[in-house]
Amino acid sequence: MSNLFPVKLEGALVRRAGTTLVGPLNLELQANGVTVVLGPNGAGKTSLLRMMHGIARLGGGRIDWACSPEEARVSQAFVFQQPIMMRRSVLDNIAYPLRLSGLSRVKAKVVAAQAAADVGLGDMLDRPAPFLSGGERQKLALARALVTKPKLLFLDEPCASLDGRATREIEEILNRAAGHGTRLIMSTHDMGQARRLATEVLFLLNGNVYEHSSAEAFFGGASTAKAQAFLNGDIVE
Ligand SMILES: Nc1ncnc2c1ncn2[C@@H]1O[C@H](COP(=O)(O)OP(=O)(O)OP(=O)(O)O)[C@@H](O)[C@H]1O
């Protein structure tokens, strides 16, 4: 259970060069579950996640967490589609956020080694991150994000361009994290993944939330024609 929630967005938007990328959005998310953000290319999925995480500047409106903004900031992490790694070992990459949070070098390495083992990288501790495969790199990104035990984890298409096996392994890690109480908000283009992981769906179109419903309701028959067309694999604009 997380004390960041409910989070309320009121008129929240992101602008870039005079264009509104996402919003204005009114949205309330509750403490439990896995929110999957769906929508066609350019719908604003990445912008929404970045706005909520505070790495895209709020150009209007507000985002109110159930805790202070500072507490919300330190309680969340973000996994990017193309994770940025230090050109150092797997262990050093995972230990880095722990060192930043003040843990001693020795303690950080012990905790990081366990986190690496938890995502299946236990036998690659000394391998330089640039030498990892795409799937291994994404597991490293997850270990690095989860090692500080965030209450909320954003993921932007975490399995894009990964094969079925790597995707399954990543989903197992995400399920475990969710089971341990980490709130997940993620975008994906993989409808199978959305069905497997989502407890609720945010369907975005043209920078706005077009549908917000339980996964059961959404996949059972979306309530808007455009969401249903998207589910059917049609081109939606
Ligand atoms: N830095 C930027 N400057 C200008 N426009 C941008 C910028 N980043 C995104 N956009 C535009 O904002 C809109 C929303 O982009 P966003 O990446 O949030 O969509 P998305 O749903 O994540 O798309 P995709 O599925 O293709 O990743 C798009 O039209 C995109 O071209």
Summarize this entry quickly:
This protein is 38% helix and 24% strand. It is α/β, with parallel strands linked by helices and 237 residues long.
Write the topology of this structure:
Layout: E1 7-16, E2 19-29, E3 34-38, H1 45-53, E4 60-64, H2 69-74, E5 76-79, H3 90-100, H4 105-118, H5 134-146, E6 152-156, H6 164-179, E7 183-187, H7 191-197, E8 200-205, E9 208-214, H8 215-220, H9 225-231
Parallel strand pairs: 3-7, 3-8, 5-6, 6-7
Antiparallel strand pairs: 1-2, 1-4, 8-9
The structure holds adenosine-5'-triphosphate.
Protein name: Glutamine transport ATP-binding protein GlnQ
GO molecular function: ATP binding; ATP hydrolysis activity
InterPro entries: AAA+_ATPase, ABC_transporter-like_ATP-bd, ABC_transporter-like_CS, Molybdenum_import_ModC, P-loop_NTPase
Structural class: alpha/beta
- Overall average pLDDT: 95
Q: Which architecture of the domain at 7-84 and 152-231 per CATH? A: 3-Layer(aba) Sandwich
Query: Helix tally?
Result: 9
Domain ABC transporter: 7-231
Keywords: ATP-binding, Nucleotide-binding
InterPro entries: AAA+_ATPase, ABC_transporter-like_ATP-bd, ABC_transporter-like_CS, Molybdenum_import_ModC, P-loop_NTPase
Pfam family, one: ABC_tran
